[in-house]
């Protein structure tokens, strides 16, 4: 189920942030979006979820139009979103957060089992309130809650930001498993090492435009593209 974006423009009020963005996310592949702060990466993900309306252009999943849908309808089409900052329900337990994530699909037991198999640490903390988890565990929960939708496309906005190396490794391993299951992953990431390890393609954004979209196999950590578009 490929996610395809063609000539997408969007913004806030009179301000246009996205200018004719086009890219494609394929099943079983990780498509990374990189760029400096303010390039429009998070706005792009919000637009894909219907949280920021598209002004022009198209968003389709397996040929079915998503642009113009209200935000609450987009997850029903198979797209899940993990925003920057996690946005968990802090006073609720781990189990309750997961149940909210699975509401759209009816909280199927087999889906919850797959999610907890992917993140076994959460199984040990089902009765613990989300606010008392460590930062890494909260990020696991945010991803797990999104996966309770059993999505075909997963949008991740800087999922390893601020985490210790051991937690980063666990989350990266989970992304590899999801890729093997055929999920199309769209990853906003600033860490060059993570992009080279996880991504199949990388699109570089500058001022709301994708200026270069290329296969990761031709990139190295010292590539000019990283210095030019990300400042690394």
Describe this structure as you would to a colleague.
By secondary structure, the chain is of the alpha/beta class. It has two domains: 3-78 and 151-229, Rossmann fold; 87-150, no CATH class. Helix content is 31%, strand content 27%. It contains eight helices and ten strands. The strands form two sheets. Strands 6-7-8-3-9-10 form a six-stranded mixed β-sheet, with helices on both faces. Strand 4 (54-61) and strand 5 (64-65) form a beta hairpin. The longest helix is centred in the C-terminal third of the chain and has 16 residues, at 165-180. The radius of gyration is 17 Å and the shape is globular.
What does this entry show, briefly?
The chain has about 230 residues and is α/β, with parallel strands linked by helices. Helices cover about 30% and strands about 25% of the residues. Strands 6-7-8-3-9-10 form a six-stranded mixed β-sheet, with helices on both faces.
